[in-house]
Amino acid sequence: MEKYKLFDAEYKFASIVWDNEPINSTELVKLCADKLGWKKSTTYTVLKKLSERGILQNKDAVVTALVKREEVQKYESNAVVEKNFDGSLPKFLTAFLGERKITEQEAEELKKIIEEAVK
Q1: Model confidence pLDDT, tens digit, residues 7-57
Q2: Phi and psi (nearest 5°) for 63?
Q3: For residue 75, how many other CB atoms are within 10 A of its CB?
Q4: Which residue pairs from 30-39 have beta carbons closer than 8 angstroms and sit at least 24 positions apart in sequence?
Q5: List of residues 6+ apart from 79 with CB closer than 8 A
Q6: Pairing label, strands 56-59, 62-65
Q7: Which of 20, 39, 58, 106 could disulfide-link to 102, CB 3.0 to 4.6 Å?
Q8: What is the pLDDT of residue 3?
Q9: What residues does 96 pair with on adjacent strands?
Q10: Which helix (DSSP H) or strand (DSSP E) does residue 24 occupy?
Q11: What does the alpha-carbon distance between residue 94 and residue 111 come to, in Å, rounded to a whole number?
Q12: How many CB atoms lie within 10 A of CB 54?
């Protein structure tokens, strides 16, 4: 599952692909220059790296994602809970919510998520 670990810059880059795929590699270079301040060489270096790791694909100058955003988010979320909260979801939620209040609708959504996970 280490394949799903993305560093901050890689995640921002992959997000541009996820938001615009399929995207021509030339257009991707323009978007990365605008949104990330990257040079063409940087864009192609990161694209090559993520393609080698099986996260993105560059075929005939068209870039697409092989791994969904949700898969990366799931990996990252699990890694945070494991590393910082001994794998305890209740500890994570307690720390995350702190003094923050949630709406009745958010509470209902969380209840549904928990009920589905228990089934």
Answers
A1: 999 999 999 999 999 999 999 999 999 999 999 999 999 999 999 999 999
A2: -100, 130
A3: 17
A4: 36/9, 36/12
A5: 5
A6: antiparallel
A7: 106
A8: 67
A9: none
A10: strand 23-24
A11: 15
A12: 11
Element (H, E) at 1: none
85 and 95 Cβ atoms separated by less than 8 Å: yes
Tokens of 98: 């702190």
Is the preceding peptide bond at 22 cis, omega within 30 degrees of 0? yes
> pTM for the full model?
0.79
3-state secondary structure 39-82: CHHHHHHHHHHHHHCCCEEEECCEEEECCCHHHHHHHHHHHHHH
Altogether, the residues listed in the chain come to a count of 119
Question: Distance (Å, rounded) from C-alpha 62 to C-alpha 46?
Answer: 15
Joined tokens for residue 91: 């500890």
CB 33 within 8 A of CB 46: no
How far apart are the C-alpha atoms of 84 and 104, rounded to whole Å?
A: 28
Contact 31/37 with Cβ under 8 angstroms? no
